[in-house]
TrEMBL record:
GO terms for MF: 4 iron, 4 sulfur cluster binding; catalytic activity; metal ion binding
SMART domains to which the protein is assigned, alphabetical: Elp3 (SM00729)
Protein name: Pre-heme d1 synthase
Alphabetically ordered keywords of this record: 4Fe-4S, Iron, Iron-sulfur, Lyase, Metal-binding, S-adenosyl-L-methionine
Database matches in CDD domains: Radical_SAM, SPASM_MftC-like
InterPro entries: 4Fe4S-binding_SPASM_dom, Aldolase_TIM, Elp3/MiaA/NifB-like_rSAM, Heme_synthase-like, HemeD1_Synth_NirJ, PqqE-like, Radical_SAM_PqqE_MftC-like, rSAM
Radical SAM core domain ranges (all copies): 22-239
Source organism (scientific name): Halovibrio salipaludis
SUPFAM superfamilies: Radical SAM enzymes
Family membership noted in the UniProt record: Belongs to the radical SAM superfamily.
UniProt GO BP: heme biosynthetic process
Amino acid sequence: MFRMTRYIKSLMHPTPVPPPARPPGPVVIWNLIRRCNLTCKHCYSVSADIDFEGELETDEVYTVMDDLKSYGVPVLILSGGEPLMRRDIFEISHRAKQMGFYVGLSTNGTLITEDNIEQIAAVGYDYVGISIDGLEATHDWFRQKQGSFADSMHAVKLCRQAGIKVGLRFTLTQDNFHELPDILRLLDEHDIDKFYLSHLNYSGRGGRNRKRDTWYDMTRQAMTMMFDHCHRELQQGIEREYVTGNNDADGPFLIEWAREHYPDQVDALWQRLVNWGGNSSGVNIANIDNLGNVHPDTFWWNYTLGNVRETPFSQIWSDESDPLMAGFRQRPRPVKGRCGDCHYLPVCNGNTRVRAYNVSGDFWEEDPGCYLTNQEIGVAESDRRVATPAVEIPVHNL
Ligand SMILES: C[S@@+](CC[C@H](N)C(=O)[O-])C[C@H]1O[C@@H](n2cnc3c(N)ncnc32)[C@H](O)[C@@H]1O
Ligand code: SF4
């Protein structure tokens, strides 16, 4: 995750560069249930409104939580499918809070109503993230349910009224790119604390629909818009939190933005971002799916490291023998092509390996989602990617 606000603030108000953070354990994103009342076109968990057999029972979830706690995991993001469809979600959430985890709820929001908002507030979630993938028509089409935008925005309102920290999560595609300015306006209108722009990752239905990924030039425009917007708000004294995910080229692209706006701060920003460390799949991010399978992150459901019913998470995560995990933990990662040659590699850490794998069949190929130019990354113009980012070519055609 790239914490844009933090870094733009550091450009505006420089302070000494802090040393690299060393979290005690990975953030665990836990898909507690795969069932969902929506069937979004990009869904990595390929969720639908059917029962998925063999999901972890409540007592099994608790056993895993105890292990996660003793292993030093600081954060649990409870996700799905739709986590509010799990009948024991509030029991699990209360227990997680009592154990001292930072607990986030990752929800589509449509099941948050007047009937359960008090129960949700009583948990004391540290953060509730609600997905909004465009304005009403686009969102309802993308999430394949009429009325889902209205229900999700109603949930945002209920959460805000209940004093819950709430964020919108927006997955950028060709279909909603043009609505990003309107979505940014919604944040202000509804006094929303946080905005998470998620780049499309190529797994599950997101893999099948990867041709809907933004063109490079769109991504560049979207990110420039985000930087400018966040910068403007900070100048006005508004401290909303902007973060992005699934494209660690956002770090280097902010350095490129800083060259224009804060040239004397570029070196400090570069060092801050090296300390941030870029992509952290398999290192500071872990995933447990609904069946208890452990993956290097949420987008690697086709790659299983073990199952918590057979082996504790702590043991699975500490095992150094898996080749993909060994690569994830290597600095620099053994990436190839443009990624291997790029001078920003220490910043972005090779970006998103799922996209490379989905497109090439090789974990360590260049990430086709990197939207930086050859000139920006310091490689020869003749380097092998064929398209220039200014040309409107979908990523999958490269
Ligand atoms: C799988 S959903 C589960 C929680 C809940 N059902 C929801 O939609 O928010 C978690 C988040 O992942 C995002 N997501 C799903 N598939 C994705 C993909 N292929 N690339 C990027 N983000 C994706 C969703 O938009 C959502 O914000
Ligand atoms: S992205 Fe979320 S709401 Fe959409 S189908 Fe997947 S789990 Fe359901």
